[in-house]
Amino acid sequence: MRPKYDKLWKGILEVVIKDLLLFVEPDIEKYLDLQRGFEFLDKELVEMDPQPDKPSNTRVVDKLVKAYLRDGAESWMLLHVEVQGNKDGDFARRMFEYFIRLLSKYEQPVAAIAVFSGRDGKKMPAAYEDRCLWMRARYEYKTLCITDYPDEVLQTSLNPFATVLMVAKEVLLRVKDTKVEWENALYEHKVLVARLIKERMAVYGRRKTRAMMIFLHNYVVFESPEMNHKFIQQTDEIFKKKNTMGYFECWGEIRHEEGVEEGHEKGLKEGFEKAVRSLLTNTKFSTVKIAAMLEVPVSRVRKIKRKMNAELITLK
Asked: Which domain of life is it from (predicted)?
């Protein structure tokens, strides 16, 4: 899995983790209190990586999530989520090793989900098994292979994670003829997904809509600059506003900074200022419009604009 996909999957999973759980287990609310939210413990997971030196092109996206059980006020468990793109003979063993390390450290229940995002997903194992004399160990985890779900099925689902799967399937799109025909087919598919996301904004909410559009826009980039520009223009038409993707990307920068400096005012402030500077520099939006887009008081945007003007005067 290329680093670009790694980053995109990590970002989208944090937004749709609840939807992923409901997608793979519709009755999950019988066991988990989803209203209490989730806590992401990715740093702890990195420290436990059983294969830290493995090349990045074969690595997986991994998320460690703390979720609350329904059988007690402070009862909780760990959800280990992996997204695997390429075929990997060590995958099942690595899942088992994570399980052992997590159970040993936290002494809490652990459950895992493996999302296979490549063409070879059906060939990937759903369990790890080891035997020696009278010893037998077997570790099973939930699996989800994206090629098992036809677009027709995903389109009818109101679960946001179904739309994420439609996006991920784009890289698996195969057209036998020329590269131009492949890009045309891919373009039509991306536009279809963009329209679906727009139609379901009321269901998804603004945060998930933004996250899914960023995922859609960046997961597959056309080799032709003209085709990329065409898709951006089409997105503006679908959402009936100018610089739609620029807005979504800037919001993504703010969310990224919040994640990097979670709970720290400095990280949030820097991320916000970076987004506002980008919009003031690269668009003709007024301070009032930018404030409305980013859902903040106009005074905050005007303060940054005054700061930018002062910097220009200093340079002169």
From this structure: Bacteria
- Answer whether 227's CB lies under 8 Å from 183's CB: yes
Yes or no: say if 86 and 58 are a contact pair by the CB < 8 Å rule. yes
pLDDT of residue 53: 60
At how many degrees (to 10) do helices 244-260 and 225-239 cross?
A: 90
Nearest to 24 by CA among 119, 123, 111, 121: 111
Half-sphere exposure of 129 (CA within 13 A, CB side): 5
Tokens of 4: 């670009």
Distance of CA 122 to the CA centre of its chain: 22
pLDDT score at 165: 95
In the prediction, which pLDDT does 257 show? 44
SS3 64: strand
Query: Parallel, antiparallel, or unpaired for β 61-68 and 39-40?
Result: antiparallel
Write down the pLDDT at residue 38.
94
So what's the pLDDT on residue 79? 96
Q: Give me the pLDDT at residue 267, please.
A: 44
CA–CA gap between residue 100 and residue 162 (Å, rounded)? 31
Q: What stretches of the chain adopt beta strand conformation (E)?
A: 39-40, 61-68, 76-84, 110-116, 127-132, 135-140, 142-145
Task: Identify the DSSP state of 86.
Answer: S
Query: What distance in Å separates the CA atoms of residue 114 and residue 9, rounded to the nearest whole number?
Result: 13
Q: Where are the domains of the chain?
A: 1-148, 150-240, 246-315
The burial class, CB within 10 Å (0-12 / 13-18 / 19+), for 83 is buried
pLDDT at position 14 is 92
For residue 248, the model assigns a pLDDT of 72
d(CA 42, CA 26): 25
CA–CA distance, 11 with 49 (Å, rounded to integer): 20
Q: Which residue has the tokens 């990045």?
A: 56
| Rg value, the chain, Cα | 22
